[in-house]
């Protein structure tokens, strides 16, 4: 979002899910990684480094997974999943310290990239934006665990995302909204 005044915080539009949620602001991004078991147990992500558009269709016992990518972005990759694991780690660390968290995550790209072991140059910022686009545009239809129950769900990895920049084009921060089920699976550990 290009801001009119570089000193005023960027606000989400009224039609945005972010406008209805309090942000969880990640201070440093240096919480230890925490695996999300459900992310690792099934083929939710492409393993290819080149864009994959061929759907993933997986069935085992009573679990089905169908993953579809948008042609312009391709499917979310296993490297994109680092963003989700990082977000889960930040939420868990904050909860463990008695802080309030939210599905609405606000952060600086620099801290995220450092925390997941990536360089922090301009190229990596572009790759991060591409990863967020894939995480939002990938559609997954599956039976997933929600507490003691199994449910059929269709979702994307993030509901929406935004980049905040100054007039000069300097990135000041990014935000995304995690799906409710993902957030609940993190805090109900």
From TrEMBL:
Against Pfam families, the record matches this protein to: RPA
Q: Where is this region: Disordered?
A: 1-33
Q: Which domain of life is it from?
A: Bacteria
Q: Where is the composition biased (Basic and acidic residues)?
A: 1-21
List the protein's name: Replication initiator protein A
What is the originating organism of this protein?
Paracoccus alcaliphilus
